[in-house]
Task: structure prediction
Amino acid sequence: MSPNYNIQAEVIDIRSDTPKQDDLFLVDSNVWYWYSYTNASASASPYQTQYYPSYLGQAIAVESLLLYCGLSLAELAHQIEKTEKEIFYPSLTPKIYPGLTQNHEKTNRKGHKEHKGKKVSESHCVSPNTAITIQQRELKL
Result:
C-alpha cells in the first residue's frame, strides 16, 4: 500500500515574492551552496547565483525560519569538495619515479612487480586507498 501524504506547502516565485518573518522555508543544499560558497558562480547558471542568494538573504534579514535536512549538509560538503577538486585538479600531477607503475608498485630487475618489497602478481594490485595515501604524502613534501 502506498503512503498517503498530506503536504501543506506552497510553491512561490522567488523573483516576485518577498519573504516575511512568519515564513518557514526548507532550504535545499543547492541554495546553501549558491548562497554561501564563493566559487559556486564558476559553474552556475545566472538565475542560480542571482535569485536564490538574494531571496535567502532577504529571508535571513526578516528572520524567517530556515530549515535544512541533515543530509543536505553532507551533500553541500560533497558539492564544495567536488568544485574545489575541479578547480585544483588541472595543476595536480602525481610525481613519477623511475621503476614505479601507476599504482605505485615497484618493478624489480626481473620485471616482476613489487609492493613493499613483496612480489605481487597481475591479479593483485595496490588498493586505491594506498595510492591516494601515497599521493597525499607527496603533496605535503
